[in-house]
Amino acid sequence: MESLWSDAWARFRRNRLAAGSLAVVVGLIVVAVLAPLLQYFGLIPGPTAQDVANSYQGPAIGRHLLGTDNLGRDLLAKVVFGAQVSLAIGILVQAIVLVVGGTIGLVAGYFGGWVDNALMRFTDVTYAFPDLLFVLIIVAALGPTFLNIFLAIGLVSWVGLARLVRGQVLSIKEKEYVEAARAAGTSPVNVILRHLVPNSLGPVIVTLTFGIPAAIFTEAVLDFLGVGLRPPQPSWGVMVFEGYAAVDAYPFVVIIPCIALSVTMLAFNFIGDGLRDALDPRMRN
Amino acid sequence: MVPVLLFVILITFLLAHIAPGGPWDREGRQLSDATIRQLNAKYALDQPIWTQFWLYLWNVLHFDFGTSFQHPGQSVNELIGTTWPATLFLGAVSFVVIVVSGVSLGVVAALRQNTAVDYAAVAVATIGASVPNFVVGIVLIILLSNFLYKVTQGAFFLPTSGYPQDLLHMVMPVATLSFLPIAFLARLTRSSTLESLRQDYVRTAWAKGLRERYVVTRHVLTNSLIPIVTVAGPLFAALITGSVIVETVFSVPGVGRSYVQAIEARDYPMILGTTVLYAAVVALLNLVVDVAYAFIDPRVRLR
Fold this sequence. Notes:
Strand content of chain B: under 5%
Largest sheet of chain A: none
Number of helices of chain A: 12
Order of helices and strands of chain A: HHHHHHHHHHHH
Low-confidence stretches of chain A: none
Number of helices of chain B: 13
Oligomer: heterodimer
Largest interface: A-B, 39 and 42 residues
Mean pLDDT of chain A: 82
């Protein structure tokens, strides 16, 4: 078991794009976590601190590195605090996906029969819902708060993982070592925890990694459509939404959060590609 | 398909009705209690929620989706009838663009594997797969606005005479809608074409001395395009039901944008009508794909 993971890590590190992306993401997480400290020590102004005399300043060396928006708020500070929202949504949603999707997939695949049938019909029905429309309705119904957005995205995102885990479990269940464990009188809970979970972990990690940019994207879209977080909350989607009104005159106000979003999503996708190659060398072409 | 649609209607119905704030909340002018009571009676909103649900279901069975709250006097059918053509046309054009360029990009990349063409296609596909599409739209607007605004005197940005007439208006929305799916389709085509190129029957075809054109069109493509059909169904469904994002960015008067407006106005009949339309189109096209499979791939039999 040890050597499997260290092998995978060695393969992952050799993939420069993936390793570089991991560095970018780690750096982003550190900056996002330390954002209040940076503000405390005066390295960046507060994300809502207005400096109306200096509104719509372009990016330049000086007090506002990335420039300011219509109310003179510092764009660097908004990007840094916005990273908290995007990263938190992206990563936390995967927790819902793992718990809901993973459990449903495991139970359906392991027990089979009518349990499998019922759970998979439920999954099919959830899959039939138009994702973005559904998230829009839930957020509109419950109110545009961080918690509700997080719940809404989580509730529509688990279907893929449930199907994947079920498939994995169905194929692993037939392997000899599982049969041997069962013949030796191992309880179902132990078979699941000791054999099925560890052996299906690779593809699950990859799927969850690809889920992060998808969730970040959905959250930004909600903000951009004016249904998600509202100004003056610092989030990348809100920044695009605010800047979009004056996009012709001051494009940099919109471009900066767009770059932040694209780089983050690209980095997570590269990490996902790298993990897939590292965890399952056979899948390479 | 029918139980799925029923479930979609039920959940959407409940969600729309538990939402705080009603359809008669207006900023500025407050309606009198008597007026609200009259309006509630007119739209049966004073009935218990289950009664309302059965009533709605009964009407849906007769293709009657009710009257819009935000545009009194207009039925949901009429409203969808006026907004859908723009979306439908935009989606259909994008679909053709996506399939043609995605598939050819993928095939060329596979045939010239590990050459500059291949690397370029893979790079575009990778980047295209992770740049959010409203970012693509905004970048297009910023890059092209100055230049195109002058050329077209702003006609590009203010679609007034309706989409089907002005092909020019469609360039940017189509480009934005197509960017990501082209990338995705190119990647998919590339890998499935590479797989068929390695098959024995393709080697046989080469060995017979067939020209490249015949090998590719008759032997490779007929098999490598099967996975494309699976993706094409849902893709087409998503395109013709409208992208909320693209329609908002480019002010397309389509279904997606009217959906966002309906949510903001708590226009229950519009929200429900659009969701049902969407779910029905997706379910229908999945069915079409299943049937099409049987025709394309003789190994699959309809049961």
